[in-house]
Amino acid sequence: PPLGLLTIAAMLPESWAKKLIDLNVSELHDRDIQWADYVFIGAMSIQSASVHQVIERCQKNGTRIVAGGPLFTGNPEKYPQINHMVLNEAEITLPMFLHDLKMHRPKKIYKTERYADMKHTPPPDYSLIDAKKYAQLSLQYSRGCPYNCEFCEITTLLGRKFRTKSTWQILMELEKIYATGFRGNVFFVDDNFIGNKKKLKTDLLPAVFRWNKSHAFPFSFTTEASINLADDPELMNLMAMAGFVKVFVGIESPDEASLQECDKQLNCQRDLIECVNRMQSAGLEVTAGFIVGFDNDTPNIFQRQIDFIQNSGIITAMVGLLNAPSNTRLYKRLRG
User: Fold this and answer.
1) Whole-angstrom distance between the N-terminal and C-terminal Cα of the chain?
2) Could you tell me the CA-to-CA distances from 265 to 195, 227, 260 in Å, in that order?
3) For residues 50-68, b (16+ Cβ closer than 10 Å) or e, as one string?
4) Model-level pTM?
C-alpha cells in the first residue's frame, strides 16, 4: 500500500472526508476526482508516467492537486501544473499548508531543510485500504542512513542522521494492521533498519517478539539492511526470533573497484558471499540489489554478477542500470 499517502491521511483534519485510490490495485474513475475538493498525489520516479496521466485528468475535471513525496521533492520544476507542492517531510511542511489553506491563502510550494522528529508521526490510516487486496502490508520505523553512497538518493531526501519512532509507536501500528484482519508479511520499509543496533537489541526487537508471540505470531517481517548485519550474530538472532524472515541488502557489485568508485565502503574488503551465507544461516532469506554500469565495470561484469547471485544462493536479485537521481553526488559529479 502507499504508506506515504496513508500517513498523510492521518495528518489531515478529522473532519475531512478521505478516500484513497491505490493505482496498483484499483482504477481511478472520474467520479473519484469529481468527488474530491483536492487530490493528493504521492509518487516515486518510476511512477512518473502515471503521475502525468493523473494530473491531466485532474485538470480536465477541474480538481486542484496537492503533490508530495520523492518524485516531486526531487524534481518540483518538472510539474508546473501542480497547484500546491508539499515537499520534503510532511510532518514539517503539511501543517504549513493546512494553516494557509484554512486562512484561504495557500502557497504554491512548501519545503524545508529540517528533518522531522518521527516521534510525532501518527500511525498510518490503514482504514482507507482493503487489506485483502495486498500480499504484504508495511510500516516505517526509521529514516535516514549513516552511509553516503554516491548514487543513492536516500541521504539527499532524508539525511544521514538516523531517526526512529518509539517502540510504543511501532506496537500501536502493529495493532492497527492486526485490526484490519490482515495476516502475513509486514515490510519495515526503512532504508537501513539496523542504523541503531543498540536500540534494536535492547528495545524494539524484544518488544516486537513479545507482541508477536502474544498474538500467536500473525506476522512475519521483511526489511532492508546494510551488509554489516552479517557481522552481528546477536542482532540476526533477535530479528529471527521477532519474526523477521527476509532482508534486502544492497550488494551492488562483486567488483571491488566499482564499489570503491561509488563509495560503497561498507561492502569493500569483505567476502560478500560469506556475509550473505551468514545471514541465511541465521534464518534470514537474503534478497539483494545489484548495479551494472559503473565506470570500472568491464564487459565481463554481467557474467560476474550472474555467478555471484548463483553462488550466494540469493533467491531474488534486483539488477538495474546505474542511474543518477537529481541531487545525488553522482548527479553532481556528472554535471561537472
Assistant:
1) 38
2) 16, 11, 6
3) ebeebbebbeeeebebbbb
4) 0.94
How is residue 102 written as a grid cell? 484554512
Which grid cell is 256?
571491488
- Cell readout for 28 is 481511478
Q: What does the block give as the cell for 289?
A: 540489489
Q: How far is CA 212 from the centre of its chain?
A: 23
Pair type for strands 109-110 and 84-86? parallel
CA–CA separation, 188 vs 223, rounded Å? 5
* All cell numbers assigned to 25: 490495485
Residue 142 near residue 118 (C-beta atoms within 8 A):
yes
Strand pairing partners for 316?
287
Judge whether 282 and 236 are in contact, CB under 8 Å.
Answer: yes
Distance CA 30, CA 54 (A): 10
Cα–Cα distance, 212 to 218 (Å, whole number): 7
- C-alpha–C-alpha distance, residues 138 and 142, integer Å: 13
Q: Tell which residue, 268, 296, 306, 318, has the closest CA to residue 149.
A: 268
The 10s digit of each residue's pLDDT in 130-162 is 999 999 999 999 999 888 899 998 888 888 889
